[in-house]
Amino acid sequence: MDNILDAYGSESDEELISDNARTVENSTFKWNPQSQYKRHRKSPPLEPKVRVYVSKRRKKVEENSAQEKVINEKPITNEHDGSLAARPFPLLNIPSRIQSTLEASFEHQTINSQKRFGAIPIRQYYHLPKDHVKGVNAIKWCGAFGQVLASASMDGTVRIWDVFRSKKCALILKHDGAVKDVQWDGQGKNILSGGYDKLVKLTDLETGTTIHTFSHPQFITSLRYHPINSHIFVSGMSKDGIISWDTRSHKLIKEFRKFWGSVNDLEFLPDGGELVTCSDYVVRNSADKNIVVWDFESATSISNQIYQEAFSCTALRIHPLQRHFTAQSNANYIAIFSIEKPWKLDKRKRFEGHYVNGHPIRFNFSPEPDQGRYLASGDSNGGIFFYEWSTSKIVKTIENAHHQAICTDISWHPVLRGTMASCGWDGSVRIWE
Question: Do 407 and 426 form a contact (C-beta atoms < 8 A)?
């Protein structure tokens, strides 16, 4: 071996061989007999990816949450001219407080998480700035989420309140006379308003512009959208009855000519085939035309023998379970009627304890998850009365909610349980929780 190295090798080669030998001895590599098998073993097939279904409602919430992260929430400046240029974010974006409640509902935790919150408010959450200089007739939360609140006033304005962000008026819609009623469309993007200027204005809330103006021969006293055909609405007037309109073609569809007195309020029955109206028509020894049921297709009255007491009614509401409708009577109680023919009056049950005394006082039912378990009504002395539907007993009273001014309307929030708004003839709008 030494002769071979002397003949063909060199000193550098010897060093190279020794270095390689040391490298192999010091190596931590150990041979595994199963490594060959693992290298050639087939990997299991990949499972196909399943796309999780996301509802449109949740997509809208996620989009709004992404926008709120980008946009810093600043107080909204009221320009008093209907301009939206100064607003740092769209009005219809869902506030974070409502969004958190909706996210809990997506995780099937709404009822459990809200058990600690009662359906009846116990304190005043916020008193909105008293921008109305005259009494407020009606208030309404926006659509299914309640992002903003609309109030109609005798001062000729409709104010849109950003309750959960800036707590200020974000938009003003002007009329030439007192505004009696407001109604949101099904999507909550457009709002109807009508009053003593004999005009019903359809306004786009995102741009603040008037889409169309519907002229009437008399004062407008009440408005309501059709429950099935969202492009149709009806307007009640002070003398000449009811007119139905199409918001797409901006044309009159039909007129309900045979009517008695001013239309105080109106409601569609759940299928949209019948329309219930109440009026201020009272004649001595004859009060059988206070509440009338109409066939909407033929525009003819079906029955006017529903409520035969000598008192007019100021408001109508459909119970959320859609088995009854109710009417606010000037006899200082709320009457209950069956929603099926012949629309019988429940003579054993009524909600009484508050005072109406001839004033246009409205009421409302608690929404989901209570499904009309409670009823809240305004009062001529400025209070708010809460009744339980099953027992018709008073469960709570808020006295002097509007400082002895008439409390005219109540509106429960559609998402936040136990949150509601009230308005009165003192020009104030209050939020309760």
Answer: no
- State residue 64's pLDDT score: 60
Nearest CA-CA partner of 226 in 280, 297, 292: 297
Rg of the chain over CA atoms, in angstroms?
34
Q: Could you say which DSSP state residue 287 is in? A: -
Query: Does residue 29 carry a pLDDT above 50?
Result: no
Residues written for the chain: 433
CA distance 250 to 248: 6
What are the tens digits of pLDDT across the range 360-380? Answer: 999 999 998 888 999 999 999
Identify residue 99 by its one-letter amino acid code: Q
Proportion of the chain above pLDDT 70, given as a percent: 74
Query: Rounded to whole angstroms, how far apart are CA atoms 188 and 409?
Result: 20
C-alpha–C-alpha distance, residues 101 and 428, integer Å: 27
Average pLDDT along the chain: 82
Please give the single-letter amino acid code of residue 132.
H
Number of H helices, E strands in the chain: 6, 28
Q: Whole-angstrom Cα distance, residue 182 to residue 193?
A: 5
Tell me which residue has tokens 């109807």: 192
